[in-house]
Specification:
alpha/beta, 2 domains, single chain, 230 residues, 6 strands, Noncanonical pyrimidine nucleotidase, YjjG family
Amino acid sequence: MQTNGITDIFFDLDHTLWDFNKNSALTFKKIFEINKLDFDVDAFLSHYEPINLKYWKLYREEQIEKETLRFSRLNDTFLAVGFSAEAQLINKLSNDYITHLTHFNYLFENTFEILDYLSTKYRLHIITNGFDEVQNTKLNKSKIHTYFKTITNSENAGVKKPNPQIFNYALQLAQTTAQNSIMVGDNYEADILGAKNIGMDAVHFDANNNLPTQNGVKKINNLIQLKKYL
């Protein structure tokens, strides 16, 4: 099945191309070693990952600032594992995390293969809610930055997905229209509904294949499956 009329493809970055959970786990292992903290990383992450998602949702909905997200996700996780951490340590770990996160740049399977394939047929772009200074480094260090004509992040757009303004900002930057574009992302609310709400088609990337298909939305669990649609 081909998606006709598409000229531009917009990708989310974290959890879609850039394997956030894998890179984040390696980063925590590194910063715990640096700070001489004896933690079982897997046990820590079992609490951290849902807490992090909760705070990203609040951030996405403009209910908290970036600094609150960075501090509170760690503070809440330490409380959950029963470790008493002073604010000074949490702030240091938060800064160390951002510093070291981009030292690890694992991508999802077939990222290069699908970008090679698509870049000969379409213009490719990024729309991300991530932080400007971190996202650009991820793209460069993972060596995928050259595939993308434009990069839109929530800090330069002034709003976050699923706000229609960030999609319209990205479309304007790419000099294209919603009708000629498609969004590929992992977050149903931010990426899929956000795109659909402005009339853009979307493909839901569910790497673990554990979410139900909703409302007939195109869904894949491996990036190479985009060939079915594009």
